[in-house]
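Incident log entry.

Two folding requests arrived from the same account within the same minute. Monitoring flagged them as a possible duplicate submission, but the sequences differ. Recording both here for audit purposes.

Request one:
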Amino acid sequence: MGANTLLTHGSTKEIGMITGDFHVHTNFSGDSDTPMEEMIKRAIKIGLTKICFTDHMDYNYPKKYPMDFTLDVKGYLDTITDMAKQYKDHIKIYKGIELGLTPENGAWYRELLGRYSFDFIIGSSHVVDNLDPYYPEYWEDTEEEEGYRRYFQTILDNMKAFNDFDSYGHIDYIVRYGPNKNQNYTYEQYADLIDEILITLINKEKALEINTSGYKYGLAQSHPHKDIIKRYKELGGEYITIGSDAHRKEHLAYDFRKAEDMLISLGFEYYTIFDKRIPKLVKIQ
């Protein structure tokens, strides 16, 4: 990952010590209709000092579904550049992207990243065996536990096929959509696969994302679950990125105070942001 830089900052009333949201979507993503400038104005209002836009690029997303996750990368990056200049005296704006990974997409994404430069890249798993768990079709012939296991195995398969990301996003995202959501879900039940995921991230010097959208979905947990974050630290993990996964402006920095309290309770002193793909540690206590 390269050398670290340690940053410090003050607290703000609404969002606490975590003042950088590094998972944000706009109307460049197929599942958001919020203009980028609205996100920026809201971020400034609530006290964010940094924001990283990470709109979706899911190459070869199954065409049977109504969403189109093909990102206009040039238009997107040009807009971020314009916004960064316009608001440079108010907030630092970073260029990010969320790549929807599948084992078949690695070569295409490597070519994409050879053409365009980003500050931060999230790797995420949204599709398993050409099915998106968001849709009921995924669960028709699959028991919940097996569906979750297939998802976690896909993360491992994706990391074997593609390595050029900075943080893995919402690694237990699937529990949003399971038949019983996270009611019967525990880290221990899937520890064999989850530990392998965490060890792989640590060995590859990749970050683990804390995605606070789980609270928004009423799960009473972040993605991943606190027990997974605890295990990441026990295994030697250091890099934690924080993102709200906001698709609407009112969800920016959603429940960041809960994420802050959780990190402190687990013994973390820093979270991580990325600038030109280089990790920088930001003190939270």
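Request two (distinct sequence, not a duplicate):
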Amino acid sequence: ARLTVERGALDKWRGGEHSLRDDFVETVEAAAAALTVSLALEEDALGEYHLGKWAMSKKRFDRALEHLNRAIQLNPDYADAHNALSVLQSHQGKVDEAIRTAKIIAEKWPDYAPVHMNLAWWYAIEKQDAAAARPYYQRARELGLEPYNRLDDLTS
């Protein structure tokens, strides 16, 4: 069978605010950056960040910490890397530390939606404190994040 696609079709597919092409390009750039860092061909915050996320997904927390810290060292204004560091702390069972880190991130980047959602989750689910979670969840939603079923009661 032959697969054909109308010219420009990838540009029409939308996934959130990006086209499928944009998402594909972003993924390829991330993989290339991670590869060049892994092969010690280049120092790159994007590559370190993605290697850190990969290590975290494999529960290799020490390696994840090394990569994320290196990403932050290479680019101190890399909000995603700072946020991933807070998520790593929570995966290590250091929820209070994750919250402290996330609050610093939220203060520095008040329009960075993922950190607000993380704070809402940690307060609501980990700390069982809906009142503390509510403003973070509302801010994440204001910033465009989709509702999360387990946190929807926070909007009441």
